[in-house]
Amino acid sequence: MNILNIFKEFQDNAKAVTYLESKRWPNQVICPYCNSDKTCSHQEKTKKRWQCWSCYKSFSVTVCTIFHHSHIPLNKWFMLIALMLSAKKGISAYQASRDLGMRRVTVWSMMHRIRKAMATDQAELLKGIVEMDECYVGGKPRKKMMIMNHLSADAGLRRKRLLARLNEREKLRLNELASQC
Ligand SMILES: [Zn+2]
C-alpha cells in the first residue's frame, strides 16, 4: 500500500481502529490487564471499547501502545507514520504538521513517541503499520541477479522490501539518537 492509498484507506478513523485490532488480536481479543479472552465490545460515545468479564476493566485497542492516552485519532497517527516512512531524507515536524493540518508541537510529540517505539520492544506493535508502506531499494529486482541468486521474482521483491524496511528503521533510530544529542 503506497502513501496515497494509506491516506485514502484511513480517512475514516473507525477503519484505522479495526485495522489495529486485526493486527494486535488476529485470532481473539485478549484483555491487556489480565490476559483473559472473555471480552465483549461496546460503543462509548464515538469510541469503541472492550469489556473484560474476568477483571471487569474496560479497554480500547490502543491501551499499552504508543497511541495510549492520546486525543489524536488513530488514523492521523497512521498518516504520520506513513509520512515518516516515505520521506527518504526524513521529515521535519514543521513539514508533517503542514501536511496533516495539525499543530507543530502535537506532531513533534507524536514523532518522538513513534521514533522511541521504533527503537524499543514496541516496534513489534508497529510492524503491521510499517508494512503498509513499501518501496523498493534500487528499483525492481534484475532478472540476471535473480537467476544468479536462484531467486524467484516474488522472493526478489520480498528481499528488496525487507531491505527498505530495515533501512527506514535504521534511519529512524539514527534520527532518535541525533535528537538526544
Ligand atoms: Zn481482564
Give the topology.
Layout: H1 3-9, H2 13-24, E1 39-44, E2 47-52, E3 58-59, H3 74-86, H4 93-100, H5 104-118, H6 123-130, H7 143-148, H8 153-180
Antiparallel strand pairs: 1-2, 2-3
Please, could you describe this protein's structure?
This protein is mainly α. The chain has helices at 3-9, 13-24, 74-86, 93-100, 104-118, 123-130, 143-148, 153-180; strands at 39-44, 47-52, 58-59. It has a domain at 3-12 and 66-180. It is built from eight helices and three strands. The chain has a three-stranded antiparallel beta sheet with strand order 1-2-3, with no helix packed on it. Strand 2 and strand 3 form a beta hairpin. It is elongated, with a radius of gyration of 18 Å. Residues 135-141, 159-164 and 173-181 have low confidence and may be disordered. The protein binds zinc ion.
Distance between the termini: 34 Å
Q: What integer value in Å does the Rg equal? A: 18 Å
**Adjacency order of strands in the biggest sheet:** 1-2-3
Q: How helical, in percent, are the residues?
A: 40-55%
Q: How would you sum up the global shape?
A: elongated
Low-confidence stretches: 135-141, 159-164, 173-181
Bound molecules: zinc ion
What is the β-strand count? 3
